[in-house]
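Hey, resending since the last one bounced:
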Amino acid sequence: MERGEDYHDSRPPEKPLAQACQTPPVGALLKQRFLLTRQVAQGGTATVYHARDRLKERDAGAPVEVGVKFFHKTSANIPALTMAAREATLARTVRHPGIIHIHDMHAVGDRACLTMEWIRGETLAEHLARMPGGRLPPEQAIQLAMSVADTLAACHKAGIAHGDVKPANILLADDGTRLVDFTTAHQFAASAGPLAALASEAIAGYSRLYASPRVLQAALPLPCDDIHGLAVVTFQMLEGRTPFAPHSSLTAREQGLTPGRPASLGRLRWRVLRRGFAADARMAPDDVVAFARALNHPLRGLGQ
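The C-alpha coordinates again:
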Protein backbone atom coordinates (compact mmCIF):
# COMPACT_ATOMS: atom_id res chain seq x y z
CA MET A 1 0.00 0.00 0.00
CA GLU A 2 1.36 3.42 -0.90
CA ARG A 3 0.80 6.72 0.79
CA GLY A 4 -1.42 9.26 -0.94
CA GLU A 5 -4.98 10.48 -0.77
CA ASP A 6 -6.20 7.22 0.75
CA TYR A 7 -3.60 6.95 3.45
CA HIS A 8 -1.42 9.31 5.44
CA ASP A 9 0.73 8.58 8.46
CA SER A 10 1.20 11.66 10.61
CA ARG A 11 4.52 10.33 11.92
CA PRO A 12 7.84 10.14 10.02
CA PRO A 13 8.01 6.65 8.45
CA GLU A 14 10.80 4.34 9.52
CA LYS A 15 10.38 2.14 6.44
CA PRO A 16 7.91 1.74 3.57
CA LEU A 17 4.48 0.75 4.86
CA ALA A 18 4.11 -2.21 2.49
CA GLN A 19 7.21 -3.75 4.06
CA ALA A 20 6.43 -2.71 7.61
CA CYS A 21 2.92 -4.08 8.07
CA GLN A 22 -0.34 -5.03 6.39
CA THR A 23 -2.38 -2.76 8.63
CA PRO A 24 -2.11 1.00 9.19
CA PRO A 25 -0.38 1.90 12.46
CA VAL A 26 -1.95 3.85 15.29
CA GLY A 27 -1.52 7.52 14.43
CA ALA A 28 -2.32 7.02 10.77
CA LEU A 29 -4.90 9.18 9.01
CA LEU A 30 -7.17 7.20 6.68
CA LYS A 31 -8.80 9.00 3.75
CA GLN A 32 -7.39 12.28 5.12
CA ARG A 33 -10.21 12.02 7.66
CA PHE A 34 -10.08 9.20 10.22
CA LEU A 35 -7.29 9.47 12.80
CA LEU A 36 -6.57 6.03 14.26
CA THR A 37 -6.02 6.56 17.98
CA ARG A 38 -5.74 2.98 19.23
CA GLN A 39 -6.15 -0.62 18.13
CA VAL A 40 -8.94 -2.44 19.96
CA ALA A 41 -9.11 -5.84 18.23
CA GLN A 42 -7.41 -7.87 15.53
CA GLY A 43 -8.56 -10.94 13.63
CA GLY A 44 -7.47 -12.96 10.66
CA THR A 45 -8.94 -10.63 8.05
CA ALA A 46 -9.44 -7.28 9.78
CA THR A 47 -8.27 -4.94 12.52
CA VAL A 48 -10.58 -2.69 14.54
CA TYR A 49 -9.54 0.75 15.75
CA HIS A 50 -10.89 3.55 17.86
CA ALA A 51 -10.67 6.66 15.70
CA ARG A 52 -11.66 10.31 15.46
CA ASP A 53 -13.53 11.74 12.50
CA ARG A 54 -11.56 14.91 11.76
CA LEU A 55 -14.03 16.06 9.09
CA LYS A 56 -17.05 15.98 11.41
CA GLU A 57 -14.99 17.49 14.23
CA ARG A 58 -14.52 20.66 12.16
CA ASP A 59 -18.29 21.14 12.07
CA ALA A 60 -18.98 19.91 15.61
CA GLY A 61 -16.13 21.78 17.29
CA ALA A 62 -15.66 18.75 19.55
CA PRO A 63 -14.15 15.24 19.33
CA VAL A 64 -16.20 12.83 17.21
CA GLU A 65 -15.42 9.18 17.97
CA VAL A 66 -15.93 6.37 15.47
CA GLY A 67 -14.95 2.75 15.10
CA VAL A 68 -12.92 1.74 12.04
CA LYS A 69 -12.73 -1.86 10.84
CA PHE A 70 -9.84 -2.17 8.37
CA PHE A 71 -9.89 -5.23 6.11
CA HIS A 72 -6.23 -5.99 5.58
CA LYS A 73 -6.49 -9.40 3.97
CA THR A 74 -8.66 -11.40 1.63
CA SER A 75 -10.52 -14.53 2.74
CA ALA A 76 -11.52 -17.46 0.52
CA ASN A 77 -10.28 -15.47 -2.49
CA ILE A 78 -12.78 -12.69 -1.74
CA PRO A 79 -11.28 -9.18 -2.17
CA ALA A 80 -11.19 -6.92 0.88
CA LEU A 81 -13.58 -4.47 -0.79
CA THR A 82 -16.14 -7.21 -1.34
CA MET A 83 -15.76 -8.50 2.22
CA ALA A 84 -16.38 -5.01 3.60
CA ALA A 85 -19.43 -4.52 1.37
CA ARG A 86 -20.75 -7.95 2.37
CA GLU A 87 -20.42 -7.26 6.11
CA ALA A 88 -21.97 -3.81 5.80
CA THR A 89 -24.91 -5.25 3.86
CA LEU A 90 -25.54 -8.01 6.39
CA ALA A 91 -25.24 -5.74 9.44
CA ARG A 92 -27.51 -3.10 7.90
CA THR A 93 -30.15 -5.72 7.14
CA VAL A 94 -30.84 -6.12 10.87
CA ARG A 95 -32.72 -3.26 12.53
CA HIS A 96 -32.10 -3.62 16.24
CA PRO A 97 -30.41 -1.55 19.00
CA GLY A 98 -28.17 -4.53 19.73
CA ILE A 99 -26.43 -4.11 16.36
CA ILE A 100 -23.79 -1.39 15.91
CA HIS A 101 -24.72 1.08 13.18
CA ILE A 102 -22.46 1.02 10.12
CA HIS A 103 -21.80 4.54 8.80
CA ASP A 104 -19.99 3.94 5.53
CA MET A 105 -17.51 1.89 3.51
CA HIS A 106 -14.27 3.32 2.13
CA ALA A 107 -11.77 1.94 -0.36
CA VAL A 108 -8.15 2.29 0.78
CA GLY A 109 -6.05 1.23 -2.18
CA ASP A 110 -6.85 -2.45 -2.70
CA ARG A 111 -8.00 -2.68 0.91
CA ALA A 112 -11.18 -1.39 2.52
CA CYS A 113 -12.56 -0.18 5.81
CA LEU A 114 -15.93 0.26 7.46
CA THR A 115 -16.68 3.18 9.74
CA MET A 116 -19.26 2.68 12.46
CA GLU A 117 -20.66 4.19 15.61
CA TRP A 118 -18.34 4.02 18.60
CA ILE A 119 -19.83 2.41 21.70
CA ARG A 120 -18.03 2.86 25.00
CA GLY A 121 -17.71 -0.39 26.90
CA GLU A 122 -15.81 -3.65 26.99
CA THR A 123 -16.31 -7.07 25.47
CA LEU A 124 -17.74 -9.89 27.52
CA ALA A 125 -14.37 -11.63 27.12
CA GLU A 126 -12.60 -8.67 28.72
CA HIS A 127 -15.22 -8.49 31.47
CA LEU A 128 -14.95 -12.20 32.31
CA ALA A 129 -11.15 -11.90 32.45
CA ARG A 130 -11.56 -9.42 35.33
CA MET A 131 -14.00 -11.57 37.29
CA PRO A 132 -12.86 -14.05 39.98
CA GLY A 133 -12.62 -17.42 38.28
CA GLY A 134 -13.91 -15.85 35.08
CA ARG A 135 -17.48 -16.27 36.36
CA LEU A 136 -20.53 -14.06 36.71
CA PRO A 137 -23.36 -14.29 39.24
CA PRO A 138 -26.07 -16.58 37.79
CA GLU A 139 -28.72 -13.87 37.59
CA GLN A 140 -26.39 -11.58 35.67
CA ALA A 141 -25.30 -14.36 33.31
CA ILE A 142 -28.90 -15.28 32.48
CA GLN A 143 -29.90 -11.66 31.88
CA LEU A 144 -26.94 -11.14 29.54
CA ALA A 145 -27.89 -14.31 27.67
CA MET A 146 -31.44 -13.00 27.26
CA SER A 147 -30.17 -9.69 25.91
CA VAL A 148 -27.97 -11.40 23.32
CA ALA A 149 -30.83 -13.75 22.43
CA ASP A 150 -33.05 -10.76 21.69
CA THR A 151 -30.47 -9.43 19.22
CA LEU A 152 -30.00 -12.85 17.65
CA ALA A 153 -33.75 -13.15 17.23
CA ALA A 154 -33.73 -9.94 15.19
CA CYS A 155 -30.92 -11.36 13.05
CA HIS A 156 -32.79 -14.62 12.48
CA LYS A 157 -36.01 -12.77 11.64
CA ALA A 158 -34.02 -10.90 8.97
CA GLY A 159 -32.81 -14.24 7.62
CA ILE A 160 -29.26 -13.93 8.96
CA ALA A 161 -27.26 -16.29 11.19
CA HIS A 162 -24.38 -14.56 12.96
CA GLY A 163 -22.17 -17.64 12.87
CA ASP A 164 -19.62 -16.69 15.54
CA VAL A 165 -21.32 -16.04 18.88
CA LYS A 166 -18.57 -15.78 21.51
CA PRO A 167 -17.59 -13.45 24.39
CA ALA A 168 -15.20 -11.43 22.20
CA ASN A 169 -18.11 -10.57 19.88
CA ILE A 170 -20.44 -9.40 22.65
CA LEU A 171 -19.94 -5.78 23.69
CA LEU A 172 -21.17 -4.64 27.10
CA ALA A 173 -22.29 -1.00 27.06
CA ASP A 174 -24.08 1.12 29.64
CA ASP A 175 -27.32 0.86 27.68
CA GLY A 176 -27.19 -2.86 26.91
CA THR A 177 -25.31 -5.43 24.87
CA ARG A 178 -24.16 -5.24 21.25
CA LEU A 179 -23.45 -8.17 18.95
CA VAL A 180 -20.47 -7.32 16.74
CA ASP A 181 -18.49 -8.78 13.82
CA PHE A 182 -20.61 -10.07 10.95
CA THR A 183 -17.59 -11.38 9.04
CA THR A 184 -18.77 -14.99 9.20
CA ALA A 185 -22.51 -14.26 9.07
CA HIS A 186 -24.67 -16.20 6.63
CA GLN A 187 -27.87 -15.04 4.95
CA PHE A 188 -29.86 -18.27 5.02
CA ALA A 189 -33.13 -16.78 3.73
CA ALA A 190 -33.64 -15.87 0.09
CA SER A 191 -32.87 -12.27 -0.84
CA ALA A 192 -32.30 -10.12 -3.89
CA GLY A 193 -29.64 -7.57 -4.81
CA PRO A 194 -26.07 -7.43 -6.10
CA LEU A 195 -24.61 -8.97 -2.94
CA ALA A 196 -27.32 -11.59 -2.39
CA ALA A 197 -25.26 -14.51 -3.70
CA LEU A 198 -22.19 -13.53 -1.69
CA ALA A 199 -24.21 -12.89 1.49
CA SER A 200 -25.68 -16.38 1.24
CA GLU A 201 -22.19 -17.88 1.47
CA ALA A 202 -20.21 -18.04 4.67
CA ILE A 203 -16.68 -16.79 5.23
CA ALA A 204 -14.55 -19.37 7.04
CA GLY A 205 -13.54 -18.06 10.44
CA TYR A 206 -15.45 -19.75 13.24
CA SER A 207 -14.09 -20.04 16.79
CA ARG A 208 -13.41 -23.70 17.57
CA LEU A 209 -14.50 -23.74 21.23
CA TYR A 210 -17.83 -22.02 20.48
CA ALA A 211 -18.76 -23.53 17.11
CA SER A 212 -21.40 -26.23 16.78
CA PRO A 213 -20.61 -29.67 15.32
CA ARG A 214 -22.42 -28.60 12.13
CA VAL A 215 -20.18 -25.59 11.58
CA LEU A 216 -17.07 -27.59 12.49
CA GLN A 217 -18.06 -29.98 9.70
CA ALA A 218 -18.10 -27.07 7.22
CA ALA A 219 -21.87 -26.50 7.17
CA LEU A 220 -23.15 -22.96 6.60
CA PRO A 221 -24.32 -21.33 9.86
CA LEU A 222 -28.02 -21.45 10.70
CA PRO A 223 -30.00 -20.09 13.68
CA CYS A 224 -29.48 -23.39 15.52
CA ASP A 225 -25.72 -22.76 15.45
CA ASP A 226 -26.20 -19.34 17.04
CA ILE A 227 -28.26 -21.01 19.77
CA HIS A 228 -25.41 -23.46 20.33
CA GLY A 229 -22.94 -20.59 20.59
CA LEU A 230 -25.16 -18.73 23.05
CA ALA A 231 -25.49 -21.87 25.19
CA VAL A 232 -21.70 -22.25 25.25
CA VAL A 233 -21.24 -18.59 26.21
CA THR A 234 -23.84 -18.94 28.98
CA PHE A 235 -22.04 -21.99 30.36
CA GLN A 236 -18.75 -20.08 30.31
CA MET A 237 -20.28 -17.15 32.21
CA LEU A 238 -21.33 -19.61 34.93
CA GLU A 239 -18.28 -21.88 35.03
CA GLY A 240 -15.37 -19.76 33.81
CA ARG A 241 -14.66 -22.10 30.89
CA THR A 242 -16.35 -23.51 27.82
CA PRO A 243 -18.30 -26.76 28.37
CA PHE A 244 -16.08 -29.04 26.29
CA ALA A 245 -12.69 -27.39 26.87
CA PRO A 246 -10.06 -28.13 25.75
CA HIS A 247 -12.08 -30.03 23.13
CA SER A 248 -14.45 -28.74 20.49
CA SER A 249 -18.11 -29.72 20.52
CA LEU A 250 -17.48 -32.07 17.59
CA THR A 251 -14.63 -33.88 19.35
CA ALA A 252 -16.71 -34.10 22.52
CA ARG A 253 -19.58 -35.66 20.59
CA GLU A 254 -17.32 -38.15 18.85
CA GLN A 255 -15.71 -39.15 22.16
CA GLY A 256 -18.97 -39.22 24.12
CA LEU A 257 -17.87 -36.42 26.47
CA THR A 258 -20.56 -34.50 28.35
CA PRO A 259 -20.14 -31.44 30.59
CA GLY A 260 -21.23 -31.44 34.20
CA ARG A 261 -23.91 -29.14 35.56
CA PRO A 262 -22.59 -25.80 36.88
CA ALA A 263 -23.02 -25.69 40.65
CA SER A 264 -24.83 -22.34 40.41
CA LEU A 265 -27.41 -23.61 37.92
CA GLY A 266 -30.57 -25.44 38.90
CA ARG A 267 -31.41 -28.79 37.33
CA LEU A 268 -34.34 -27.37 35.37
CA ARG A 269 -32.20 -24.68 33.80
CA TRP A 270 -29.45 -27.19 33.16
CA ARG A 271 -31.81 -29.26 31.05
CA VAL A 272 -32.62 -26.15 29.03
CA LEU A 273 -28.94 -25.30 28.58
CA ARG A 274 -28.13 -28.83 27.42
CA ARG A 275 -30.86 -28.55 24.79
CA GLY A 276 -29.03 -25.47 23.54
CA PHE A 277 -25.87 -27.54 23.06
CA ALA A 278 -27.94 -30.05 21.07
CA ALA A 279 -29.69 -27.44 18.89
CA ASP A 280 -30.23 -28.71 15.36
CA ALA A 281 -31.22 -27.44 11.94
CA ARG A 282 -34.90 -28.30 12.49
CA MET A 283 -35.24 -25.42 14.97
CA ALA A 284 -37.25 -22.46 13.74
CA PRO A 285 -35.51 -19.06 13.47
CA ASP A 286 -37.34 -17.68 16.51
CA ASP A 287 -36.37 -20.56 18.79
CA VAL A 288 -33.52 -18.51 20.28
CA VAL A 289 -36.15 -16.47 22.13
CA ALA A 290 -37.87 -19.61 23.44
CA PHE A 291 -34.48 -20.91 24.54
CA ALA A 292 -33.64 -17.74 26.49
CA ARG A 293 -37.08 -17.51 28.09
CA ALA A 294 -36.92 -21.12 29.22
CA LEU A 295 -33.48 -20.46 30.65
CA ASN A 296 -34.80 -17.50 32.61
CA HIS A 297 -37.75 -19.35 34.17
CA PRO A 298 -38.16 -20.15 36.96
CA LEU A 299 -35.68 -17.96 38.85
CA ARG A 300 -35.95 -20.17 41.91
CA GLY A 301 -34.38 -22.95 39.83
CA LEU A 302 -30.96 -21.45 40.46
CA GLY A 303 -28.77 -23.46 42.80
CA GLN A 304 -31.18 -26.37 43.14
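The chain has two domains: 7-117, 121-301.

Sorry for the duplicate.
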